[in-house]
């Protein structure tokens, strides 16, 4: 008789998976980990803006006053952006996952989905903080491309084509141009001239980050690689998920969501993410106006999200993770954007 071995292909075995489920999605959020997160309440995000109008003069001995003046005030208002992540899990899926030996990450399928939704929501918010269209319907976050990437776009109801005090520092050579240290120095000087303060952070895409790093070699002392930085929000550790370098006194960060070909110069004293405080968060001690830090018990990115179970229909459970928030640049001339930076 012929020898017929029983091979693996001829037997039925339960498929075993590794314990963990390995995510293949990049949901890292550099900007959200960097800028201050300052909760607020009310029907919108609003602040008072002051423009120059005060009068000073030299005068002759005994001369009467001819000119009077005072700084002007205007109202800046941003409506909340409403953003959510939802999912639905059938009863059979939850029951089958709970009884499966592997992967262990699916045993609590409901919790696994909620964690995924929170991460995706944070990633979406991070992207919106750069390119969000605040005038879209339904309303998106008003991103940096509008807040400091234009000197003509209306921002926070203030029409900048009629004003100059609300303008950011903006440079656009019109075509892709190689970045130089002289350009960075000029940008920093321009922002300092406009507002009297230097930006402390600059954010750009990975390609632009590499172009800036390409200006240096091992003998150059202008740049220093950093694992930890400090902003108005406090000390921030990046670990392996991002890179930071000190260039000309400014911390340069790379963010996958930054608009390609641009460097965003940010003053973290005047840029913040503002989530609306829910009644539950008020009960937990969140105070409007306080700067939430990475070690305040609300996680490294305290977006003050709310989890809601939605009405059950049929054999499935549904939920929504949501938050109301907006990006606020209360002093645009403290920030700026260099556009058309060449990168590879």
- Beta-strand level of the residues, as a percent range? 15-25%
Helix content: 10-25%
Characterize the main sheet: 7 strands, mixed
Cα-atom radius of gyration: 26 Å
What class would the helix/strand composition place it in? alpha+beta
- Total of domains: 1
Task: Lay out the secondary structure.
Elements: H1 30-34, E1 45-51, E2 72-78, E3 81-90, H2 91-98, H3 109-131, H4 144-147, E4 169-171, H5 181-195, E5 201-204, H6 206-213, E6 223-226, E7 228-231, E8 234-237, E9 244-247, E10 250-254, E11 263-266, E12 271-275, H7 279-283, E13 306-310, E14 316-329, E15 336-338
Parallel strand pairs: 4-15, 5-10
Antiparallel strand pairs: 1-2, 3-14, 5-11, 6-9, 7-8, 9-10, 11-15, 12-14, 13-14
Short structural description:
By secondary structure, the protein is of the alpha+beta class. The protein has helices spanning 30-34, 91-98, 109-131, 144-147, 181-195, 206-213, 279-283, and strands at residues 45-51, 72-78, 81-90, 169-171, 201-204, 223-226, 228-231, 234-237, 244-247, 250-254, 263-266, 271-275, 306-310, 316-329, 336-338. The strands form 4 sheets. It has a 7-stranded mixed sheet with strand order 4-15-11-5-10-9-6. Strands 3, 12, 13 and 14 form a 4-stranded antiparallel sheet that branches. The protein has a two-stranded antiparallel sheet with strand order 1-2.
